[in-house]
Specification:
This protein has 66 residues and is mainly alpha-helical. The protein is built from 2 helices and no strands. It starts with a helix and ends with a helix.
């Protein structure tokens, strides 16, 4: 059986994926010609990718033994 902790990790992974998708598909386009905002969204995109990678590893490690 999964614990609340397992579900928390999975829910956060989904949220990070959704946020990454919005950044890539909406926010960067909406920034228009603003170079500083594009730079911010690119930095945020990298951060989200790192979060997704780390959370994926954590979820995998927690679910492998269940």
């Amino acid at each position: 059986m999964l614990t609340n902790h397992d579900y928390n990790l999975m829910i956060q992974l989904v949220q990070e994926h959704k946020s990454l998708w919005r950044i890539q598909n909406e926010y960067e386009k909406d920034a228009g010609d603003c170079a500083s905002c594009h730079a911010f969204w690119k930095k945020m995109e990298k951060d989200k990718r790192d979060h997704v990678k780390e959370l994926t590893a954590l979820v995998k490690s927690h679910l492998e033994g269940k």
